[in-house]
Amino acid sequence: MTANPTASSQMRHSHGVEQFFASFGESGNRILDLGEFTQANVSFITNLGLRLHSEDLQQTLDAVFGSGDPTETQSDVGRANHFLHHVLQFPDEYFDGVLVWDTLELLSPPLLKAVMERLSAALKPQAMLFACFHPESRDDMVQQLSYRIADGRNLQLHPRGRRRLAQTFSNRGIERVFDGFQSVKFFLTRDSLREVIVRR
Fold this sequence. Notes:
Layout (H helix, E strand, L loop, with lengths): L9 E4 L1 H8 L7 E4 L5 H9 L3 E4 L2 H9 L4 H4 L3 H10 L8 E7 L7 H14 E11 L7 E9 L4 E11 L6 H7 L5 E5 L6 E6 L1
Parallel strand pairs: 2-3, 2-4, 4-5
Antiparallel strand pairs: 1-7, 5-9, 6-7, 8-9
């Protein structure tokens, strides 16, 4: 998806980001960022003394499956296996935290299950996970966003164009995604984008 050059970015206070980074009290913790690579995120995270690993999950999805309906393209077993061969190849209990952003909505149920198994294995006990979810809607086309950390409390959201989601989630559906994790905390927001913090 290409960004809409006429769309404007917006600053957004994020309680989820604030709590996520407040949980790291020592330097050297490993953080995984699954969103678009941005210099803003690299600078903010490394300036905290954290060790950053970046893996653009959406970029790999687009390279493997193309721009068709994800419910159809991701049902191709060969391409799904090819995707899984190239993502989240990390040792067990390697990360102290992961910034998922809204990437889980881009995955069909079978692919989401496989990705969550890998994420769960790669996280240390007590590790933190931050994710965003769009509201449930009959229209599965949403404005795709690039999430850039402005500071420890605010995100700069940059539109990247409209995109078809593989699935949307109710709050209960989000809780089911994280079955096996210790806790899922929802944050009230002024817009429709839901934030959650999950503890492994």
